[in-house]
Structures are given as structure tokens and as C-alpha cells.
Design brief:
Elements lengths: L30 H10 L7 E5 L3 H4 L8 H4 L9 E4 L1 H7 L8 E4 L1 E2 L11 E2 L2 H6 L4 E6 L7 H18 L3 E5 L9 H13 L4 E4 L5 H6 L5 E4 L6 H13 L4 E4 L1 H4 L4 H14 L3 H12 L1
Parallel strand pairs: 1-2, 1-10, 2-3, 3-6, 6-7, 7-8, 8-9, 9-10
Antiparallel strand pairs: 4-5
The protein binds ribose-5-phosphate (R5P).
The site of ribose-5-phosphate has 13 residues, from strand 10 and helix 10.
Length: 287
């Protein structure tokens, strides 16, 4: 004990901080889960801008994703999180960019056929790639695929719980399916009930009910390319109605000015810009 400096700074009279965790529904999760969720959801705002470019796994080289090195790598710096497949991550995203990854962790058919027999990738690969979350589709209301995708989601949640890796449930939209708040609220809630810590769904009228009835954060997909002003209105309306951010692809990488667009989306999601202010920012940056 010689030279041992005695402990004296116990902060007596100062209560330990027991403030709730900044991610909805995550207060009771373990440290690893929380650490990974904190990489995705900014602790200051509780929100995220995920850049989605996993489209190639069902669509092949779609517009704006012909060359990941040229189209996507320059945008990585502006995203809070990357959503992509393992193939694109390990071939085309430099590991020293140090961005959290929501790894597309299921695989199935392409747009050339109907949804079929979706499967999960190995959890070892998810760990090896240091993913911060696993994205897994759930296809509610699809007679052939509902049970298969629910089983995938539940299995992914089991594996994620084992290793502290959260799952993002991705609500599918098949050709026959409704696209209203009632449907998306059901699909989102089922994802959370099966263990998802994040849900990705679509914005629609009545979205506030989807977000309110889902016990974990809901992020919205952008969907098909819209004019930039409308896409920023979509982002603004979504976060105003309770979304915890966006998981946006085509409305960023198919924009006339993708770097300007993702910065404007980021400002609407995190900095409280209105859609009009976001559009003004987009035009300024584009100019
Ligand atoms: C679709 O299967 C993918 O999960 C996309 O990542 C998702 O739809 C988001 O991309 P977008 O904003 O282009 O809809």
C-alpha cells in the first residue's frame, strides 16, 4: 500500500445518474446492445439518418448504385449509419471510414420472382463484420412468407440477444398488401413483439399511430424517388409524427445532388429544420 493514493472523491450527497436511455424501449437491454444502438441513434437527438444502399440484393445494379465506390463512398461521411449487404460492405466500403453498419442479414429472391424462402446469413459473419445491427425482413399478410419471415426475425432476435446485436425489422410491402397505417402499425408492432429493437416501415397518413403503438424506434424508408422538396417534406412529416429518423436510399443516391440531399435530410432530422429550410439548404449546397 506504500504510495497508494487513498480514494476520497465519492461524490457523497450526489445521486448516481439513473436517467433513462435515449433509445425508445431499450432501457432494459444489456450494455452491448445499448452501445450499438448509441452508434446508430445520436444520443443528443435520439434520431438517426441511415443511408440505405442494400437495393442491389434484390435489384442488381440499380440507378445511383452502379458504382458504390463513386456513388456511395463520398456520402458515407454524412450518414449516421450505413445499411447494406455484406458483399458490398466488404468489397466497396473502406473499413477505416468507421461508420456503424446495419447489416442486411437476410437473403431471398430478386425482383424477377415473387418473395420466396427468405434465409438468414450466419451470425458469425455479422460479428466478423462488426455490425451494429441486423436488418431482417418481415412480410406481414403474405400467406406464403409471413411465417417464414416471422421465424427469421425471431431467430435473428435470439442470435442478436446472445451477442448483444440489435435487430431492425424491415416491414415488407408486397404487391397484394395494403399500404395504410393499420397495416404498417400491425407489421411494425409484430416486429417489435418478436424482438426487433428498431423497425423500418413507410410513412403514410396516420403515421403518428404507427410510431406511438410501436415500443421501439421507427425509422422510415424513403421509397421511390421523389422531387427533393417532397422527399424533405416526407422526412419532416415523419419526424414530426414520431419517427426516430430515416433509412433512406433512392431519394438520396438518385438525387441530382446526393451529397447536398443527405446533408439537408440530416439537418431536417437532427437540427430541427423545416422542410422548406431543408430544401433551401439543399439548393444552396447544390449550387
Ligand atoms: C428495400 O428492400 C431496402 O430495404 C431499402 O433499404 C429500403 O427500402 C430503403 O430504401 P429506399 O429509401 O430507397 O426505399
Amino acid at each position: 500500500m506504500e504510495g497508494f493514493r487513498e480514494a476520497s472523491n465519492f461524490g457523497l450527497g450526489q445521486a448516481a445518474d439513473t436517467a433513462a436511455f435515449h433509445v425508445k424501449g431499450a432501457s432494459s437491454l444489456g450494455w452491448g446492445m445499448k452501445d450499438r444502438l448509441s452508434r446508430i441513434f445520436n444520443p443528443a437527438t435520439g434520431r438517426t439518418v441511415m443511408l440505405a444502399f442494400d437495393h442491389g440484393f434484390i435489384m442488381g445494379p440499380t440507378s445511383g448504385l452502379e458504382r458504390i465506390d463513386l456513388n456511395i463512398v463520398p456520402l458515407v461521411q454524412y450518414a449516421d449509419c450505413l445499411m447494406c449487404t455484406r458483399g458490398i460492405l466488404q468489397t466497396s466500403i473502406p473499413a477505416n471510414m468507421n461508420k456503424p453498419v446495419c447489416l442486411r442479414s437476410d437473403a431471398g429472391s430478386t425482383i424477377l420472382t415473387e418473395l420466396n424462402r427468405n434465409v438468414l446469413i450466419d451470425i458469425e459473419d455479422v460479428i466478423r463484420l462488426n455490425a451494429s445491427a441486423m436488418a431482417v425482413m418481415f412480410s406481414a399478410g403474405d400467406g406464403d412468407q409471413e411465417a417464414v419471415t416471422a421465424a427469421n426475425l425471431a431467430r435473428a432476435a435470439d442470435l442478436g440477444n446472445r451477442y448483444g446485436i440489435p435487430v431492425m425489422g424491415v416491414t415488407a410491402v408486397g404487391k397484394q398488401m395494403a399500404r395504410d397505417a393499420r397495416y404498417f402499425a400491425l407489421a411494425s408492432r409484430v416486429c417489435a413483439e418478436n424482438g426487433a429493437s428498431i423497425v423500418k416501415t413507410y410513412y403514410c397518413e396516420g403515421f403518428e399511430k404507427i410510431a406511438a403503438s410501436c415500443p421501439v424506434p421507427v425509422v422510415i424508408a424513403g421509397g421511390k424517388k421523389l422531387p427533393e422538396k417532397e422527399a424533405l417534406e416526407l422526412c419532416y412529416n415523419a419526424v414530426s409524427d414520431g419517427a426516430a429518423g430515416v433509412d433512406m436510399g433512392r431519394n438520396v443516391f438518385q438525387s441530382d445532388a446526393p451529397a447536398a440531399m443527405i446533408q439537408a435530410v440530416h439537418a431536417v432530422v437532427h437540427d430541427g429544420l423545416t422542410a422548406a429550410q431543408g430544401y433551401e439548404m439543399y439548393c444552396d449546397l447544390k449550387g
